[in-house]
Write a structure and sequence with these properties.
The protein is an alpha/beta fold. It has seven helices and seven strands, in the order βββαββαββααααα. The two termini are 26 Å apart.
Length: 180
């Protein structure tokens, strides 16, 4: 399997806490729940293994799990909670946030008929809806950019890149190999 030589920008790593034990650097804002960081790193590792086998190469990247206090200085101007892939760094929110909560408010206002279906999938024990598991899949889309945009595969249009990254969020035939 070929390894890509793309460089990972280490500027955004300064001041973050290292979480060793992964095949790629995992860094997080100080004070984030270690279990959350580990869960996100495990999902990223599973997605990376799957995509590496699919595309026959391994990109270099780092996972940054960030709290709101570290987001603006490391993310390229996106709202806290919207994962992104930038210069070899996969940036993920490490806490629930307004972006996720406001998405649910938009659904409630614009498509209330969809709430029973959302509740069936994302319902909480207290009758609420928590979209965190859905937003937990968006980093897989962003990681796919490391394969689609940084690797040898070049598609002729940006919208095709985005489509391919969306398709990467679907788990393989063996769902156990791709933790949710």
């Amino acid at each position: 399997m070929a390894e890509m030589s793309g460089a990972v920008s280490t500027g955004p790593h300064a001041g973050l806490e290292s979480h060793p034990g992964w095949d790629y650097p995992v860094l997080a804002s100080r004070g984030l729940d270690a279990g959350t960081v580990s869960r996100l790193a495990a999902r990223t590792a599973a997605a990376s293994r799957y995509l590496s086998a699919l595309f026959s190469y391994e990109p270099r990247f780092a996972l940054l799990v960030l709290g709101p206090e570290d987001w603006d200085s490391r993310s390229p101007g996106l709202v806290y909670g919207m994962p992104n892939y930038e210069q070899g760094n996969l940036l993920i929110a490490g806490t629930s946030n307004r972006f996720w909560e406001e998405s649910l408010e938009l659904i409630k206002a614009g498509a209330p008929d969809r709430l029973p279906g959302l509740s069936a999938v994302y319902g909480t024990g207290d009758g609420g809806i928590d979209l965190t598991p859905f937003f937990g899949l968006l980093p897989v889309h962003e990681l796919a950019h490391a394969f689609v945009n940084d690797g040898p595969l070049r598609l002729p249009r940006r919208w095709l890149d985005e489509l391919e990254c969306n398709l990467a969020m679907w788990p393989p035939k063996n769902p156990g190999s791709f933790p949710r």
